Automatic annotation (TrEMBL):
This is Acetyl-CoA acetyltransferase. GO terms for molecular function: acyltransferase activity, transferring groups other than amino-acyl groups. Residues 242-391 form the Thiolase C-terminal domain. The lineage of its organism: Bacteria, Bacillati, Actinomycetota, Actinomycetes, Kitasatosporales. CDD domains: SCP-x_thiolase. It comes from Streptomyces telluris.
Amino acid sequence: MASVRRARKVAVVGIALSDCGRVDSATPYDLHAQAARRALADSGLDRSAVDGLASAGLGTLAPMEIADHLGLRPAWVDSTSVGGATWEVMAAHAADAIAAGHANAVLLVYGSTARADLKAGRRTAGLSYGTRGPLQFEAPYGHTLIAKYAMAARRHMHEYGTTPEQLAGIAVQARANARHNPHAMYRDPITVDDVLGGPVIADPFTKLHCCIRSDGGCAVLLAAEEYAADIARPPVWVLGSGTAVSHTAMSEWEDFTVSPAARSGRLAFARAGVTPAEVDVAELYDAFTYMTLVTLEDLGFCAKGEGGAFTEHGRLTVGGGLPVNTDGGGLSACHPGMRGLFLLVEAVRQLRGEAEEGRQVHRPDGELPRIAVASGTGGWFCSAGTVVLARD
């Protein structure tokens, strides 16, 4: 009879960023390797411990090309690609694999030179998802990715009275959090008037409502509980995760004011055995300000339609009631493409208490945060992945 493995606890044991921001002299492979080496060093584990790899977005045969470049021969791989939610979905897959005994230590790694490639003329600013399948019915009308997010934001404004000023305030608070992050690409303070007065990209979004374009990479190493005694940093435990997908064509999206995070979050919190009220810090995908607002609602931090009011009065800053995107997020820190892995890195950094002075979150009693959530969104609210993390 086949043996049955006991489900194991899973921890994040290593995290790292590659060089980020403006990186003109590196390839995406360089950034993958740099982030991977730094994450392994952060963990204190040897490369030989890694028997699983998750990677997407680079190479013809991802993640095999990355494994080859890193000198790894993994027995477990994942190349799931669902846009910005990719890394939370991969983290969920990896945690399940480790808990089931199918892998012991899984490296999630990403790197992109999106900004440098554009500056050097190696790519254009336009991003096309093709015109096959359901998208063939929207592509002839020039319906861009940002236009889809803008439509959703406008619907929320129509349904619930959300204001341009409330959306702009999200960008202002992200910049305030970036101020103390030496790795953030933009750190100078901005005001609501600065946001509203910028050039319109897709109504109601002006330039500062939209994520920046940067280079960068990062890596996260997940491992079984047996490794906790051998690692260099305190483990951060994966309490629970959830994933969900929605539409591809906007015509198939039942409600523009509800993202798939409503399902992924509900699953993640139930599996973690915690409630949104217990979360000390949230790292949320923020390619556009509306993403932050609707994800806060859908994860249960406030009721549907109350996101605008919930984000006011500095609530999302490091010293606010619910610190969100404490590194500055995609709106100010970095956004090299699929940013979801950066959310996990920052969540772990906060739980470990390793953030720089001025952006390290503390609970009202002065203690370090105990529970964090990282929630990624992909496509135009097409997919979501949510991971709940905790320190001992």
